[in-house]
Amino acid sequence: MKTAPVVATPLAFDADGIPFSERYGDRYHPRHGALAQAAHVFLAGNGLPGRWQGRDRFVIVETGFGLGNNFLAAWNAWRDDPNRCARLHFISIEKHPLTAADLQRAHAASPLPELAAALVRAWPPLTPNLHRLAFDDGRIELLLALGDVAAWLPEIVASADAFFLDGFAPDRNPAMWQPRIFKALARLAAPGATAATWSAASVVRAGLAAAGFEVGSAPGSGGKREITLARYAPRFTPRRAPSRLADSDAAGERRALIVGAGLAGCAAAWALAGQGWRSTLFDRHATIAAGGSGNPAGIFHGTFNADDGTHARFNRAAALQGGVAIRDAIANHGVRGQASGLLRLESAHSIDAMKLQAATLGLPCDYVQALDAEGAARLSGLPPTLPAWFYPAGGWVDPAGFAASLLADAGGGVELRARTAIAAIRRRRDAWQLLDAGGRVLDEAGVVVLANACDTASLLEGFAELPLQRIRGQTTALALDTPGLRLPHLPVAGNGYVLPPLPGGLALFGATSQIEDAEPRLRTGDQHHNLAQLMRLTGSAPSVADDVLTGRVGWRCAAPDRLPLIGGVADIAAIENGARFDQPRFVPRLPGLFVFTALASRGIASAALGGHTLASLISGAPCPLEASLLDAVDAARFVSRELRRGPSARA
After folding, report:
1. Which has fewest Cβ within 10 Å: 58, 64, 161, 602?
2. CA 509 – CA 527 distance, rounded (Å)
3. Distances, alpha carbon 51 to alpha carbons 4, 77, 124, 169, 455, in Å
4. Do 577 and 328 touch, CB atoms closer than 8 A?
5. Which residues contact 229 (CB under 8 A, 6 or more apart)?
6. CB 394 within 8 A of CB 342
């Protein structure tokens, strides 16, 4: 997906005080009120709340978020319904969103003040991403896609039960009512999905009919004669890709076994609990996050890349979602950390070039800012050296504390079995079994998630191969009173990192990066490397003897392309010659077997989004990643790439 800058629209009002779009020359809602229109057209027009009653989940897709009144109305109706569905997912697309300040102004006199205030508090930076906003303990989920509706609809991975078609009028905004828009909606429609819109224009009705909807009408309200209602009734149902299908055999049990209790495993258990699943979490260590997640502190932040390619888009989405979870961990669980910003020094470009790149991408200042050396120094408290990218929502956190907060939020949905090593897995009937070194069955379930870093590869022997790399990293720690030591006020990174003073009187910095290096002991040469990085980042040259230096050695797990591996494991035996594998989504999967690994150096930032993504693939909930990014992190992507090369290329 090619991104474009998100251009906010200024809030304006017409002579009657009704919110008005100067861009489209049209009101956001009729005179009789946005909530009245939402109740009559979009809720009643889709048979709500009746159709969601008694269900586990209900999914609404909206074209045109506008001021968010339809979302607030649906949320309020869900709250008021004692027979409501367990979870309500609301997916909405908006090309020209309001800023947070204008959104607050728009809802200053909202008849739903509590809900409107929660929406304003959660409003994200206006980046071209699929933003996941959660409310009511995650039972209400808003997936907000910022950008053009024609570009976004093919990227949505969901099965929609209802559509709210709420763009500006067809004669004011024809792009929202093109035939390809209706075809894209049909691709998302679940059997029996309904649609409603206030528009009765012939182009709207014809477009819905051509896309497989049965079209009708109903009386309008507020002076409007009629509205359009529709029901999806296609002549045939398109086949869904294997990687996009939840495992229906395991859905009734709603229980998963997760191997590995680091950040990935804990995030997977947390996200599955949010979808109503139970998990049993296995780890060979005595405590959680004792392996690659075992450093006393680590950094998290977004990324910036001038071409805004796949890595930049995924890492930005991960940082935005991870930052929400980390701030919650710090504020509500007392986890050690700081989420007030991070500086990443820039040595390849001048400040003028940085500002030009930032302006071209149009990323907002609450996501990233280009600072000159003096501006960076004012934030860090260090002497000016280089310009820097400032990520206001970045920072540092205790990884083990963060992992523990995720399990705490999962509540009784997770059972931890520590000091339990898994030596092998096997398939028996419709279940996966976990075995110990003696071949004894420790547990079995229809769904198993391997989240044990590079050890995932050994458990998959005989099933699939994953190109994983073990990367050794050594950090260095010093006492805060070490002579000559100077630390920043906030984390500073750039070919290494240094943290501000940590609780307990610790200075932490590093780190080395050595592929497939198995040395477990601290090396003096690596300590000197880290001291040189400290000098470059801070200008600090502490006077310290080698025998005073401490630190930690750990191993990160990475894929060759430095993106995580998330999703179902490829079923190599089911691959047929000549089948279509140009995208990993078409690769057949082993039922119920998933991986969540290769988080590399960005595990803190990507754990939350990765967990939600995995949980959506297992449970069938809407995916918080767009289709192109889901392909990019798909666990079967290397199989797909190999198959595309053909037998002669692989020989």
Report:
1. 64
2. 10
3. 37, 12, 30, 28, 45
4. no
5. 45, 194, 195, 196, 215, 216, 217, 218
6. yes
pLDDT at 240: 74
Residues 6+ apart with CB under 8 A from 438: none
Q: Which of the 8 DSSP states describes residue 99?
A: P
Find how far residue 409's CA is from the centre of its chain.
18
Q: What is the rounded distance in angstroms from the CA atom of residue 169 to the CA atom of residue 30? A: 12
Task: Show the 3-state SS of 131-151.
Answer: EEEEECCCCEEEEEEECCHHH
How far apart, in whole angstroms, are the C-alpha atoms of residue 644 and residue 623?
A: 26
Would you call 352 exposed, middle or buried from its count of C-beta atoms within 10 A (0-12, 13-18, 19+)? exposed
For 528, the token pair is 């000197």
Q: What would the two tokens of residue 20 be? A: 């008005």
At residue 21 the predicted structure's pLDDT band, cuts being 50, 70 and 90, is confident
Angle made by CA atoms 91, 92, 94, in degrees to the nearest 5: 155
Rounded Cα distance between 413 and 408, Å, is 10
- And the tokens for 103? 């959104």
b (16+ CB within 10 A) / e for 549-560: bebbbbbbbbbe
Q: What gap in Å lies between CA 423 and CA 289, rounded to an integer? A: 19
Tokens standing for residue 625: 């990643």
For residue 148, what are its two tokens? 């053009």
Per-residue CA distances from 355 to 328, 363, 369, 388, 626 (Å) = 32, 11, 8, 11, 28
Pairing of strands 424-428, 431-435: antiparallel
Only one residue has tokens 């109706």, namely: 77
**Is the full-model pTM beyond 0.70?**
yes
**β-pair type (213-219, 226-232):** antiparallel
Q: Are 595 and 256 in contact (CB under 8 A)?
A: no
**Digit-coded pLDDT (tens) for 586-618:** 999 999 999 999 999 999 999 999 999 999 999
DSSP H or E segment with residue 428: strand 424-428
Mean pLDDT of the chain: 93
CA-based angle 454:130:19, to the nearest 5? 165
Pairing of strands 414-417, 278-282: parallel
SS3 sequence of 523-562: CHHHHHHHHHHHHHHHCCCCCCCHHHCEEEEEEEEECCCC
The predicted-structure confidence for 263-292, as pLDDT tens digits, reads as follows 999 999 999 999 999 999 999 999 999 998
Helix (H, G, I), strand (E, B) or coil at 259: strand
Residue 299 sits at φ, ψ, to 5 deg, of -100, 160
